[in-house]
Amino acid sequence: MVSPAQKKTAVAHVVTQRLCSVRRACRYLGLPRSTYRYVALPVPDRRQQLHQRIVALSWAYPRYGYRRIRSGWLRAHLGRRHKDSKTGQMVGAGCSDQTYNRYKSYLSTIFKFGIRCGYNTINPVELIEAAPVVVETYEGFHEDQLALLLTHCPPHTRLIATMLADTGMRHREELGAMTRSWVHFDEAPFPRIVVPGEASKNRVPRTIRMTKRIEALLREIMENGLVFDVRTDTNDNGGGKVREYRCPARHRIVPYTSIRKSLSSAGKRAGLGHVRPHDLRHTFVTRLLDLSVPIEQVNYLAGHKSMAMTKRYDHANDERYGGAIEALDEAGKTGSAETVWIPGPSEARSWTKRKYYTG
User: What pTM does this model have?
Assistant: First the structure.
């Protein structure tokens, strides 16, 4: 069986030797003239490299099918892609709405600088509409909600979630970089965690007093390390695999592993919806304000520069402010309407005339 490429080579050879015309040679070999004249487009280097990578992966993982390799590694190389409704081809999805607005802001800043320097007179970027972006809002949980969330967390997620909720530390910048030098157990006046300025978001050092729970947890980690045995099955026979999660007693206090997926799953199991690690920092502020801690102290413990930011972190409920109305009742010394004088119609008319129409 002769391939079309071999037929094209034979037709080219016959035409080059001037044995017959292209039409007759294609007729003899059964090759359409459009196929003979077709010029293949050059294969991009990146696509060729991806093709070679897919072939190598198919040899390295013979049990993986084409769909698994294409949906995994090929997507990692090509990024987000979708099918164009007009052409039916897979095309790049482009940048996200947040990235689009950020680039728009950069360009607008450049044009504004040009206007101030006299290079241009208008800012054309202002005529471009910004992409609609859904603002991500965080939630702060109260004490009962936090206890419910921790009961549904796996052991390693419960460890990090407890430290975030009791210290108010930031998940990535502070807890992920915490070392032994940050922890001070025996120094006066209280055991504390000292976050250096280079690890803080606003580059200001902050001191965090440990709760009894955090102090016991850190002492256990720094002395013995922390080992969790997580059973992967739910059978009663106990014959399933056991995965060991070890937190070594070395330089780092907590080996940073992302808990976003496990924390979100725990929040859904607890009926709290999608929970993010930063929600636990909001929980730290909310719990303190629920306990009637002055907002100035909460502002210092959270490491905020302004009081407005601390108020944004507060997620109060109606129960916290219910005592304000009770205080008014206590100040009035009565709970009935008998002491309130309600004028009748004639009295109301005479009072109105006396107040507004008499001198």
Answer: 0.55
Contact 320, 289 (CB under 8 A): yes
> How many C-alpha atoms does 316 have within 13 Å on its Cβ side?
13
**What span, in angstroms and rounded, lies between the C-alpha atoms of 71 and 84?**
18
Q: How many CB atoms lie within 10 A of CB 230?
A: 12
Residues contacting 9, CB < 8 A, separation 6+: none
d(CA 100, CA 333): 61
From first to last of its 359 residues, the chain has per-residue pLDDT tens of: 578 888 899 999 999 988 889 998 998 888 898 888 888 777 667 667 777 777 877 777 777 776 776 666 555 554 555 566 666 665 556 667 778 888 888 889 998 999 999 888 888 888 888 877 766 677 788 888 899 999 998 877 888 888 888 888 888 766 777 777 888 888 778 888 888 888 777 788 888 888 888 888 888 877 776 665 555 444 444 444 444 555 554 556 666 567 888 888 999 999 988 898 889 989 998 888 888 888 888 888 888 888 888 888 877 766 666 667 777 777 766 555 555 555 666 655 555 555 444 44
140, 282 contact by CB (below 8 A): yes
Pick the closest to residue 139 from 283, 12, 20, 331 (CA basis): 283
